[in-house]
Automatic annotation (TrEMBL):
Record GO terms (molecular function): aminopeptidase activity; metal ion binding; metallopeptidase activity
InterPro entries: M29_Exopeptidase, M29_N-terminal, Peptidase_M29
Organism of this sequence: Candidatus Thermofonsia Clade 3 bacterium
Presence of the UniProt keyword Protease in the record: yes
Highest taxon, organism lineage: Bacteria
Family annotation (Gene3D superfamilies): Thermophilic metalloprotease (M29)
Pfam families reported for this sequence: Peptidase_M29
Protein name, entry field: Aminopeptidase
């Protein structure tokens, strides 16, 4: 892009109408992707606008992108295969599990993954990649979460976001900046207040926030949740015209418990 904030002045209601008009196409796209009928990959080319958004010079941002995508490694393909193997062990361990509890300075959440599938995101559809994700049982999410990283959407930067969930639904939401825009998006449709995704970022070569979700959701030592549409391949049934990711740092005094077993602590996986 030449300007990452080109949509900042667009009426949120107009953005909602645009999202709703696109929804049938996005539903078809997600369904074909889940079935394996549609091959795609998303990436970014280093450019001045993205570098500026990330508070880097273009040269710095180029180096950041090349490190995040492993192309600075002697054998990038082997590096991605190693990530696939590490993540597949986690995905295999999570298969058949039911309850997830996430606790830390900024989070106290409980959710169910019963009957849901974790996906190994290993560079085939996002480049860079480095996450495992699923769609939680829609009505299962309970608790509270706060995001110290801003959430970027529609040319707007929403800061200081906090959500409270009850029976899966966001029942309270606030933000220190652009709260009205946040609430307008949550009111897009009934599914916009339910989670379509719960994920853990695993790419330790991404440690810097860039205001670009392709990179930021992969930051090693973070989790992210997405309000709105889920991915059919995970078993998610949540339907919405939005899919908005929010990132929570888990690198300090934070834990994830799965079926009573410590799975993750302070940004590191605890299982063999």
């Amino acid at each position: 892009p030449s300007n990452t904030r080109a949509l900042t002045g667009v009426d949120p209601q107009a953005q909602r109408l645009h999202q709703q008009a696109q929804k049938p196409l996005l539903d078809h796209y997600r369904r074909r992707s889940a079935e394996g009928a549609h091959r795609w990959v998303l990436t970014n080319f280093p450019c001045p606008a993205l570098a500026q958004e990330a508070d880097m010079s273009l040269r710095e941002f180029e180096a950041f992108v090349y490190a995040a995508t492993f192309v600075d490694q002697p054998d990038p393909i082997a590096a991605w295969q190693a990530m696939h193997d590490r993540q597949q062990r986690l995905v295999d361990w999570l298969a058949g599990k039911s309850e997830v509890i996430v606790r830390g300075p900024d989070v106290d959440l409980r959710l169910s993954i019963a009957g849901r599938t974790f996906i190994n995101s290993d560079g085939k559809r996002n480049m860079p990649s480095g996450e495992i994700f699923t769609g939680p049982v829609e009505e299962s999410v309970e608790g509270w979460i706060r995001f110290r990283y801003p959430a970027i959407r529609g040319g707007r930067e929403v800061e200081g976001v906090e959500f409270t969930f009850a029976q899966g639904r966001v029942v309270a939401a606030k933000a220190a900046k652009n709260e009205a825009y946040l609430l307008s998006q949550l009111d897009s449709d009934p599914g916009a207040r339910y989670l379509g995704e719960f994920a853990i970022g695993t790419n330790d070569r991404i440690q810097r926030f860039t205001k670009n979700i392709l990179f930021d959701e992969k930051i090693g030592g973070t989790i992210h949740i997405a309000l709105g549409a889920g991915y059919p391949e995970t078993g998610s049934r949540n339907d919405s015209s939005i899919h908005w990711d929010f990132i929570c740092d888990m690198r300090r005094d934070s834990e994830i418990w799965v079926d009573g077993e410590l799975f993750y602590k302070d940004g590191r996986f605890m299982i063999a």
